[in-house]
Amino acid sequence: MDKWIELVKAKMSELKVTQTELGERVGMSQGGIGHWLNKRREPGVTEMNRVLQALGMDFLEVVLVIREPQPTADDEMPLAQKYNPYFRYPIYDWRAPCEVRDAAASYGGVAVKQRFELTDYHARGAAFWLTVTGDSMTAPSGQSIAEGMLILVDPQLEAVPGRLVIAQWPDSDEAIFRKLDEQGGQRYLVPLNPTWPKTLLTDECRIIGVVVQATARY
Questions:
Q1: CA torsion angle for 96, 98, 99, 102 (degrees, to 10)?
Q2: DSSP letter string over 68-80?
Q3: Domain span including residue 162
Q4: pLDDT tens-place string over residues 42-71
Q5: Which among 88, 181, 93, 175 is positioned nearest to 143, based on CA atoms?
Q6: Structurally, how many domains does the chain consist of?
Q7: Contact status, residue 55 vs residue 14, Cβ threshold 8 Å
Q8: Consecutive H or E run containing 10
Q9: Roughly what angle, to the nearest 10 degrees, separates helices 30-37 and 45-54?
């Protein structure tokens, strides 16, 4: 929190931005910004990054939300209980979900700043987000992941039956999102929407990663 305040105040001074102007940029009052910068109130991770973005600064790579531990007899506590870590991963598109991209990508000759999303999931590999398109994973009951939700993909997790996976065939421009299932010794890529057909998983098909989280944005 102290480091965030230092960064924000330094950038405000550099840009000659007042608390009132900063509040207008993030849709808040001057008083609300003042409470944060004077530590009378503590913003959440989303609010912290909104302020950074309003000042033209990048999101934090790792954000630690500090919770003061209760005092103990020996005043020692594991770090995992003192801090609640948040990590950010890039949002990719379906045409090349496993490409390694720079923070600033180029599409059609136009530079586009890479977008990121925060989560408390600590990935084993180079994780990334995808935005669900279509209704193939929307089910009438039970597990259902609707269009527009963000899904977090970890390429280093083992794809075993029952997992939700991202897969791609070599002759396809785009990856697909399905549930990995096994029936009679054969593995299939199965949509959660029963109106969509399942597909036999062949050796040519590459499993890009396992879906570990799904979240809706409002």
A1: 120
A2: PPPP-SS----HH
A3: 89-215
A4: 877 777 878 888 887 655 544 333 344 445
A5: 181
A6: 2
A7: no
A8: helix 2-15
A9: 110
